[in-house]
């Protein structure tokens, strides 16, 4: 099959989605389930009510932001596995700020919590970036360990440091004030009382910012250059160490903002986590499905949100089946070499 290189970029993820759904259907048949009914229930649940459509857009907000964070690190040549911890930092610190200053006007409170989430996530991302740049440590190992440090560190904060006046139980805080919440009455009324919030608008704005940064600015060009060949970038006069740290700060900041949107937009409080945030891993998968492109991430996050909301309505079929389908999709994205064997570019065919 012949197609241009530009067409191939978006064809590979689409084929990966199709193959993932197909393998999922085969898996359902093997266990005695009807895949046609299953996918029908999934789509009907996801799009069968205004409320669930609102929930899809609610789920997209943090997914987009965390995926953008992963994409920036990937462009710089790093595999940022610390997204769950960075998102949790943004969530905990922004909610703490919101509970500490409940009477701020809503616009000012939103701006402040956005900044707190960015700063908290940026600091969590800076640590592995600095260690990689100046000590040559593996960012994969450091970010994995940082996830545990942040997880247990935030448990300590919530259980032993947060003042009693903002605690509902020993494990969870009270809800933030209406001024601090990212949910709004008009969005809720528009979507039949779903939890859709302004996080989706923040995320879409971030998509434009990251796209512009990576495609239209010198910094974006330098980050990409370091990712392709750090030695050549150094030879060209770029500071590879500086760019490593900057890219990890940006990555962590976006993940932290994703955690902020999840905390103040979906839950409205913070509670002690027992494991890494699943939203962090899902954001990583979204970025991989979008081939780390800023403009592809909203579409990939839409698919993941549809699967997440729709799987709750599959009657008689374990929701874990859709988790396996998602895993199949990412498998085929990661093994895109197999797909590319069947879709040659025109240039490759012409060279034979």
From TrEMBL:
Q: Does the keyword Repeat apply?
A: no
A GO CC annotation recorded here is: plasma membrane
Subcellular location field: Cell membrane
InterPro entries linked:
ABC_transp_permease (IPR001851)
Enumerate the UniProt keywords alphabetically: Cell membrane, Membrane, Sugar transport, Transmembrane, Transmembrane helix, Transport
Q: How does it sit in the membrane?
A: Multi-pass membrane protein
Please give the start and end residues of each transmembrane region.
Answer: 12-36, 56-74, 81-101, 107-128, 140-158, 196-214, 243-264, 284-309, 321-339
What Gene Ontology molecular function terms does this protein carry? Answer: transmembrane transporter activity
Family matches, as PANTHER family? ABC TRANSPORTER, PERMEASE PROTEIN, GUANOSINE ABC TRANSPORTER PERMEASE PROTEIN NUPP
Protein name, please? Simple sugar transport system permease protein
* Protein species of origin: Streptococcus equinus
